[in-house]
Amino acid sequence: MLQLTHITKSYEGQSLLSDISFTVNQGETVCLLGPSGSGKSTLLRIIAGLESPESGVVAFNGIDITSTPPHTRDFGLVFQDYALFPHLDVFANVAFGLKMKTASSAEIKPRVAVLLEQVGLTEFEHRKVTDLSGGEQQRVALARALAPNPRLLMFDEPLGALDRSLKEDLLNEIRTILHRTNIPAVYVTHDQEEAFAIADRILILHEGKIVCEGSPQDVVANPCSAWAAKFLGLGNVINGSKGEGLKVETVYGVFTVQCGHKHSKGENVHLLVRPREVRNGTNVIKGNVADVLFQKDGFKVTLENGLYVYLESPPKMGEEITVNIEVECLS
Fold first, then answer.
1. Long-range pairs for 294-300 at CB < 8 Å and ≥24 separation?
2. Which of 182, 250, 251, 253 has its CA 20 to 30 A from that of 136?
3. pTM of this prediction?
4. What pLDDT digit, counting tens, does each position of 120-165 carry?
5. Which CATH number fits domain 2-224: 3.40.50.300, 3.40.605.10, 1.10.357.10, 3.30.750.200?
6. Which residues are within 8 A (CB) of 304 and not within 5 positions of it... i.e. 6 or more apart?
7. Residue 231, Cβ neighbours under 10 Å: how many?
8. Residue 17: exposed, middle, or buried by beta-carbon count in 10 A (0-12, 13-18, 19+)?
9. pLDDT band at 220 (very low <50, low <70, confident <90, very high)
10. Is pLDDT at 282 greater than 90 in this prediction?
């Protein structure tokens, strides 16, 4: 089990990471999700041993490895740019880590063969890696990381250079391999769909802090903050003022909101207006249609007041519509 406790890091007086603590259990894939500059890659480099924290502890299976050199941590790392050795063929690239562990030829050959089969590159042993496509090169990089049986796998935006169809295929393969091998993994990405597809648990980072944590279902159902809801694209995040009882007054109307927070009358609150139409909802939004955009799961309809909803059928431009929606209090 990987365990980070109170990790902090700054650069030239700017805080990069602030009091980061989390664990990664055996067989679990934890995704560090956040925009550029959120601190996720710095955190991965600290886990890898490529950077040192200013304070805090990195431990594995209860042993402090904060000062342990990268090459002795027995972790595997897969980069966005593949980082393959261009002068070596596929076999030699995959075998590299095994040779560094002084494995014998009798051990290396069958191990490489098994890994190439797992990543769909059987009979590619003698190909030059420079002759491979981007997706094939990333498969080689994955096989190379897996070869020495690492205690932990780390992925730094591994699919960022691939087109959408290749990304989906390779993502499915990575998920299958991780489940089969039971190796714990830390996966860094800014892509939400990627995170939801690969992660058992998601940590959303913002300005060096974990602002939301949970399973993909959890963070969608309970985004923890207005910023996280906006980042995840969960719907319309609007401001309101606490009224009487369950009422919240906004420029878009008065909504009835069940809320677990303790708000005083007149206090400013953030609301999430979910964009999916619901039946028998207690809250509605209405307005004239300003834009209709077809998406694969329906039509995104933007109203003149700036709110948007998803509908199964497209309304006419300029038409006034009324939609039943869910409204939640974020803070």
1. 300/275
2. 182
3. 0.90
4. 999 899 999 999 988 899 899 999 999 999 999 999 998 887 778 7
5. 3.40.50.300
6. 287, 288, 289, 290
7. 22
8. buried
9. very high
10. no
Which residue from 242, 322, 316, 253 is spatially nearest to 281, judged by alpha carbons?
322
Q: How confident is the model at residue 263 (pLDDT cuts 50, 70, 90)?
A: confident
What residues form DSSP beta bridges with 310?
Answer: 276, 300
Percent of the chain surpassing pLDDT 90: 78
Owner of token pair 């490489």: 112
pLDDT of 82 strictly over 80: no
- How many angstroms separate the CA atoms of 24 and 201, rounded? 9
Count CB-CB contacts under 10 A for residue 248: 25
Beta bridge partners of residue 31, listed in sequence order: 187, 202
The three state secondary structure string of the chain is CEEEEEEEEEECCEEEEEEEEEEECCCCEEEEECCCCCCHHHHHHHHHCCCCCCEEEEEECCEECCCCCHHHCCEEEEECCCCCCCCCEHHHHHHHHHHHCCCCHHHHHHHHHHHHHHCCCCCCCCCEHHHCCHHHHHHHHHHHHHCCCCCEEEEECCCCCCCHHHHHHHHHHHHHHHHHHCCCEEEEECCHHHHHHHCCEEEEEECCEEEEEECHHHHHHCCCCHHHHHHHCCCEEEEEEECCCCEEEECCEEEECCCCCCCCCCCEEEEEECCECCCCCCEEEEEEEEEEEEECCEEEEEECCCCEEEECCCCCCCCEEEEEECEEECC
Domain spans, the chain: 2-224, 235-329
**Quick one: average pLDDT of 115-121?**
92
Where does residue 278 fall: left (phi above 0), alpha (psi -120 to 50 degrees), or beta otherwise?
beta
Q: 218 with 210: CB under 8 angstroms?
A: no
